[in-house]
Amino acid sequence: MTVLLKGTTIGTTTNADGSYTLTSSKNLTAEDAFAFSYVGFKVSEIAYMGSTVINATLKEDEQLLDEVVVTALGIKREEKALGYATQTLNENQINDARSNNFVNALSGKVAGLNLISPGSGPLNSVRVSLRGDNSMNPNGNNALIVLDGVPMVSGMTSSGVSNAYGAGSGNDVPVDFGNGISDINPDDIESITVLKGASATALYGSRAANGALIITTKSGANRNKGIGVTVNSNVTFNTVLKWPDYQYEYGQGTGRAFNKEGELYYSYGASADGASTGGTSSAFGPKFNGQSYYQYDPEVDGQSPERVPWRPYKDNIKGFWRTGYTVTNSVALEGGDEKAQPGLRSPILKTNGLCPIRVTSGLLPL
Domains (ranges, CATH) in the chain? Predict the structure, then answer.
C-alpha cells in the first residue's frame, strides 16, 4: 500500500503486515490529509487529527476488479473469465460526433469491423462485417445484431428491382429504406459488446457465425436522487463525396438498334425513325454529332412532337443534388430506485437528404 501526504511528494509504502512509518519535516495541521492507495482498491483519504497513529481500511474497486461484459442471451460475466475476445463500447463512445445510424460510430473503434454502406442518404442501410467476409454471398457475411437479447433482421428493406441494370421499362431503381439497425435510437444505447468468432456466439447458432453485436439499452435508473433530465441536440451535413467519371460522347442505347440507313438511332417510344430504344440504362447509342431524334419532352411528359437536337446534358446529375442536413433533438427523463426504473425519451429527427424531394421528419423509435 502507498501512503502519501496530499499536496506533497512525501510518501512511503507499507510492509508485508501493513505497518508503515512516515516522517515529515512539515508542521501538520487539520487541513492536511493522507491518501492511502493500492492497485484494485479505492483511494482512502484520512484527515490529520493530531494522532501519531493513522490506520486505514481500503475497499475493493468493483468496477476495476469485476468488469462485467454482456455476452450471449444477455448473460453477464466478468471479462477476465471469458475465453474469447470481446470489446465493449460505452454510450459516450457511441454518441460523440454521432451519425443518424449509430453503427457508423463503430468505425475505427472496433478491431476487425468493416462497415459497408450504399451511401443512399442519412437513413441508409449499413452492413456490419467482423474479421472479413467468409461467403461469396454478400448477405451471408453479416454480423448478428442482438437488442436486449432479441436478434434483429439487419437485411436491407428495398423496393424496385434488385439492381440498377433492371431499371427502365416501367421498373423502379432500387430504393434503400434502411434496415433494422437504423431504427435504434442512439440515445437509448447504454453499451455495445462485440463478440467475435463462433465460440463467442455459439448460443445464437449459425446466424451468429460471423460474430454478433450485443446492444444493451438504458434503464430508467438514475445514479443520483430525484429525476434526471438529459437534453441532446445534434446537427450533421451531407454532401456528395466523389463524382464518377462521365462520358459525353455517346448517348443512351444498346448499340443494336439501326435505322433504314443502317445507322444507330435513338427514339423515346416508337416513332417515324423506328422502334423505341429508350428502355435501357446503357450508353452505347448514337454518337453526339449534331443529329436530331424524338426524345423525352417534360412539358408533354412523353415523346417530343418534333425531333430535337441530340446532345449531352452535362449538368443533369450534379445540378440535381444539394447539401443535405439532419437535425436531431431529444429529451430524456430518468428516475428510479431498486423497485422501479421508469424512463421517458422523446427524440425528434428532421432530415433533408441530398435528393431535393426527400424530406423526413418525425419521432424516432423509443
Answer: 1-62 (no CATH), 68-218 (2.170.130.10), 222-240+315-366 (no CATH), 247-313 (no CATH)
